Amino acid sequence: MGVLETIYVVCLVCGVLYALAALIFGHTGLDGVGHGHVHLPLFQPILLVSGVTAFGAAGYLLTRFTAWSQPAVCGAAVLIGVALAVAAYFLWVEPMSRAENSTGYTMDQLGGKVGEVSTTIPANGLGEVLVKMVSGTTFHMAASLEGVPIKQGSRVVVVEVRDHVLYVTLFPQDDSEKEEE
After folding, report:
1. Taking the C-alpha atoms of 117, 123, 127 and 132 in order, what is their torsion angle to the nearest 10 degrees?
2. Which of 18, 42, 132, 177 sits a CA distance of 20 to 30 A from 25?
3. Which residues contact 81 (CB under 8 A, 6 or more apart)?
4. Which pLDDT score is estimated for 27?
């Protein structure tokens, strides 16, 4: 077995072992290695390993089953490895990154949400509002944007968020409740 054939086999075996470790353990510890704050999508560990594995497999198979010269086999193996890594990015990684959903949210995302007052909001104080989110229902401190009291059970709209306090106003169809007070 020649030096290049040994390199092909090592690349293939290491790639297969990495894939098995990722399958069994889920997290292989290489996520984010080598690129710090720079976002280089094509240099993700899974793509690098798939390219190296394809390089090893192609090189080994072309060495064994063709009469090509070593430089031709090595060049073809490199092209196949790069092509597979690029194809994996566009066919698998990129679509999956767009499909990811999160149940988390930030306070800024509460603007425009409709909620229900769970604790009466006094004119110049804080009450509590229940807001339904993707992750479930959440309770937040709330104040009246217009400085008027808002009764428990009223529907409100979050107009803005400052210092982790929701500033709310009555939901338009509930304006009759505001006038009754």
Report:
1. 30
2. 42
3. 51, 52, 53, 54, 55, 56, 58
4. 59
Amino acid at 14: C
Of 100, 102, 97, whose CA–CA distance to 41 is shortest? 97
Tokens representing residue 96 in the block:
């999956």
Tokens of 67: 């009469």
H or E segment at 106? Answer: none
Structure-token pair, residue 27: 């997290």
Q: pLDDT, tens digit, for every residue of 73-120? A: 999 999 999 999 999 888 887 877 776 566 677 888 888 899 999 999
Which amino acid is it at 139? F
Q: Is 57 exposed, middle or buried (0-12, 13-18, 19+ CB in 10 A)?
A: buried
Is the distance from CB of 35 to CB of 73 less than 8 angstroms? Answer: no
DSSP state of 127: E
Q: What is the DSSP letter of 107?
A: G
**Residue pair 52/15 in contact by the 8 Å Cβ criterion:** yes
Output the CA torsion 110→115→121→123 (10° steps): 70
Amino acid at 156: V
* DSSP bridge pairs for 150: 121
